[in-house]
Amino acid sequence: MKPRDGFLTDMLREPGRTAKRSPLRYRTIWISDVHLGTPGCQAKRLLEFLRATESEKLYLVGDIVDGWQLRRRWFWDQDHNNIVQLVLKKAKKGTQVIFVPGNHDESVRQFIDLDFGGIQIRDELVHVTADNRHMLVLHGDRFDGVIACAKWLAYVGDSLYTMILKWNQIFNYWRARAGLPYWSLSQYLKLKVKNAVSYISSFEDALAAEARKRGLDGVICGHIHKPEIREIDGILYCNDGDWVESLSALVEDADGTLRLVAWAEIMAQADRAAAASSADMEYASGNVGREPQVATLGKMHHG
User: Fold this and answer.
1) Range picked from 11-15, 46-50, 203-207 for highest mean pLDDT
2) Cα–Cα distance, 36 to 76 (Å, whole number)
3) Quick one: CATH architecture of 24-302?
4) Using CB atoms within 10 A of its CB, is residue 126 exposed (0-12), middle (13-18) or buried (19+)?
5) d(CA 133, CA 255)
6) How far are the Cα atoms of 46, 76, 236 from residue 10, in angstroms, in the given order?
């Protein structure tokens, strides 16, 4: 079974148990829809991702903490605490951290334009990429017709989504035990149910239209848990995904290139970089070609 196939089981590789990694560096990272405070939040994987990456700017694009769920049932374990502490540590060490609240953490909107612990709270803003593209950054819930016109229906949908995730966790636990890859029911339904596909398309079009109206080059958002980069009538639409199922983020490279990355991909890159660094250290110390002393002792012991 590959590590990524153990997606919802206990960690096959706990943070800190691999070789020491040098962080992968980006100009900017966007993450959203973490949903801290829910059992569905993949906090361990997000911790690995945050520890394996560094950036000049880190955008938290809404629904970082799930206030809706916490009001119904309290859930907050040490991994959730560790994420908050790590983000604060990044801010203290020089990363510019910008928090753009979403509908699930809408209570934070009362603190718009204030800074707490080095974290800037903003309703929305324009990010300028290294290649001078102007991108609107916002969570996106205000362009969701259900949220805007029938919030009670959004609460019902959220409860149903939580039920699906619970069933999905059990189902994928047994799939992982059988060596089968992760399969998402909610994402399957989004892609197969006609109304869901229409809803996603309408949301994306509405965000692109807003960026166009403001004379911007594109938009970066979250909210619908569907990672995507595509051009809509000349406007670049980017959605960074979520940390419940897709485990994805949007990153900007030093040259301004925007691309989606996934947890498994970042972990693989970080492990390869750590292995290369370890090999370089072995070469520099003159141990290349030598049999490790521990292995020699082991052979002597068994000989």
Assistant:
1) 46-50
2) 7
3) 4-Layer Sandwich (3.60)
4) middle
5) 11
6) 14, 17, 37
Residue listed under structure tokens 């089968």: 180
State how far the Cα of 140 lies from the Cα of 224, in Å rounded to an integer.
8
Q: Which of 73, 66, 152, 59 is nearest to 103 (CA)?
A: 66
Q: Is the pLDDT of residue 290 over 90?
A: no
Tokens of 106: 């809408």
**pLDDT tens-digit series, residues 208-219:** 999 999 999 999
DSSP for 202-258?
Answer: HHHHHHHHHHHHTT-SEEEE-SS---EEEEETTEEEEE---TTTT-EEEEE-TTS-E
Structure tokens of 233? 């009538």
Which element (helix H / strand E) includes 259? strand 258-262
Contacting residues for 95 by C-beta, under 8 A, at least 6 apart = 54, 55, 56, 57, 58
Q: pTM of this prediction?
A: 0.73
